[in-house]
Amino acid sequence: MMNNIENDTNDKQIVEALRENALSLRNVVPPEAVWNRINDTLETRKTKYNYRTWLPTFAVASAFVCAVSFFSWQHHVMKKELDLMITLNASLEDVFLQENKVRFINASNIVELQAIDRQLNTVTSIKEKISLLKERKRLIESMTITEIKESTYAI
Fold first, then answer.
1. Sequence-separated contacts (24+) of 99-104 with Cβ below 8 Å
2. What CA–CA distance (Å, rounded) separates 121 from 151?
3. What whole-number distance in Å separates Cα of residue 55 and Cα of residue 131?
4. pLDDT level of residue 150 (50, 70, 90 thresholds)
5. Domain locations in the chain?
6. How far apart are CA 111 and CA 114, in angstroms?
7. The model's pTM
8. Contact 132, 120 (CB under 8 A)
9. CA distances from 38 to 30, 32, 48, 49, 66 (A)
10. pLDDT the model gives residue 38
11. Residue 124 to residue 82: CA distance in whole angstroms
């Protein structure tokens, strides 16, 4: 226990000596150049993160995201339209072939259909495929209408 008391008084003496030493130090004021340099670094840090420099960057980034989203959505819509046109063409062709017999009057349309089918195999653009399928649909519908008119006159 005596040892603890000696340590406490020894610690108090050390702290008191450090305090007296700190009070004896004179106040040192840094030169004006040091204050100017500190001030300059503070000002450059303020302007480094200025919203005027970041605003155009954010605007370009958001425009890029919008453009990618638009083209992605447009591709999705065109893909759905292509699937719809393929299904519609297949069903129209099935109806035409099941209900009607292919006649001489439709021979030129059938040749055009075969040419469109060959083009569909070589075309890579979705837009071109859709336009070819629309043309194919129009030809099948015209052949169906021709068959209906012909059967009406045959009665």
1. 100/143, 100/144, 100/147, 103/147, 103/150
2. 34
3. 43
4. low
5. 72-154
6. 5
7. 0.41
8. yes
9. 11, 10, 15, 18, 43
10. 83
11. 12
